[in-house]
Write a structure and sequence with these properties.
2 copies of one chain form a homodimer. The first copy, chain A, is an all-alpha fold and 215 residues long. The first copy, chain A, is built from 10 helices and no strands. Chains A and B meet through helix 7, helix 8, helix 9 and helix 10 of A and helix 7, helix 8, helix 9 and helix 10 of B. The first copy, chain A, binds a DNA duplex (18 and 18 nucleotides) through helix 3.
DNA sequence: GTCTATACCCTGATAGAC
DNA sequence: GTCTATCAGGGTATAGAC
């Protein structure tokens, strides 16, 4: 428990390096140095660099509760507050890193242009675990959201907004772009809350009118 | 016009390669082969590989109308239809590439973990040109959107949604994740349209109620 | 399981004749 | 402006003693 074994040291170091520098820019030499491990040991545990990445992604997946959700939801009970508390966590990561990095999974997902199937599957699994957690929040919100609302689809939209917001903030190096995305999402949720408050009554079906031909 | 000169051939080839394989995975050798140019010629025009990237980003920026907006808006006049027609263009790119790639700027933005200032500025400039175009559409929509709505912030949200949706679709290799993001955005716009239809009347300020402490 | 030394390749970039 | 040949360096991965 105190002195982590070699394999674990490698995975933890890799997690940090991939987060800070990305996968491609992290060399085996970087990793060996950081973990204080020799080349021979690494290749004793892993067939190659990509397999270290797989282990890292598995660790993210296994630790989503302890590493991400629990800290983000410390002292937050309301399910809808939880949604935005999680987003606030990413904001914090952006601020602390001067808008360099926030979501390690998203960064890897776009860095690796043609990831092999096992990598891609693990990225997707991480995203799914994330949306599962948000879906639970939205379900726990009960009647405060429209009954007809698709909780899972909405949860995915929260992830979409987070990842998109992070991308913009990173590119502009200004956290305000992330804030803007969250603000818009909040407006959307406010609209949903209003709909739930007036359940199925009044002028539904009054979408944005189109002048030109639709589609 | 017919036989593009060497420099142009390099930039066009680079644009395509960076899109397909990413910047890091495109080697100078790849580029020379594709453009049918010799090493000496490349380094005659460009100090290094990164400067080719700068030229590519400049070309995207200069050609946003001809290369992106004009084709997307072929036969579309309604300003709000234009918003979704542009998104449909990205969907098409996803479908045609089996969800491998869609937005070259976004891909580069996340691939390059710590891009040098000139690169980052050009990425940001491209995003800004994109949101400018959408902002114009939203302004042209006039009273069909709430007067109080921040057009620019909403345009950024459209970009956020597009980029986030592309990331998810790429990761899951399923265009339905992009469709889901667009669908949610459409729902949001429908809500906005309803608000505009009932201008400033009726129960504003009925956001999602919170049970726990706010913030 | 751990260590050192090293093979071998591909990278971006250069030199210098034409 | 174009060509060929090549450099120096860093990349992943391996070999083989301990």
């Amino acid at each position: 428990m105190d002195a982590p074994d070699t394999r674990q040291r490698l995975v933890i170091s890799a997690m940090q390096l991939f987060w800070e520098k990305g996968y491609g820019s992290t060399s085996i030499a970087d990793l060996l140095k950081k973990a204080d491990v020799n080349s021979g040991s690494l290749y004793h545990f892993f067939p190659g660099k990509q397999d270290v990445l797989l282990a890292v992604l598995d660790m993210y997946h296994a630790g989503i509760r302890q590493m991400l959700l629990d800290p983000a939801w410390q002292g937050v009970d309301d399910p809808l507050d939880k949604v935005f508390a999680l987003l606030a966590r990413y904001r914090q990561a952006l601020v602390e890193s001067d808008c360099f990095y926030a979501c390690p999974i998203g960064s890897l997902a776009l860095e690796l242009h043609e990831p092999d199937a096992p990598v891609r599957e693990r990225l997707a699994r991480n995203f799914s675990a994330w949306t599962d957690a948000i879906t639970e929040c939205l379900e726990a919100a009960g009647t405060r959201l429209p009954l007809a609302l698709d909780r899972r689809a909405t949860a995915r939209f929260v992830l979409t907004t987070m990842e998109g917001g992070v991308m913009l903030a990173r590119t502009y190096r200004e956290v305000s772009y992330f804030d803007g995305a969250v603000e818009q999402l909040k407006l959307y949720f406010d609209h949903l809350g209003r709909d739930a408050a007036a359940p199925a009554s009044r002028s539904r079906r009054t979408p944005v009118r189109r002048k030109g031909r639709a589609r």
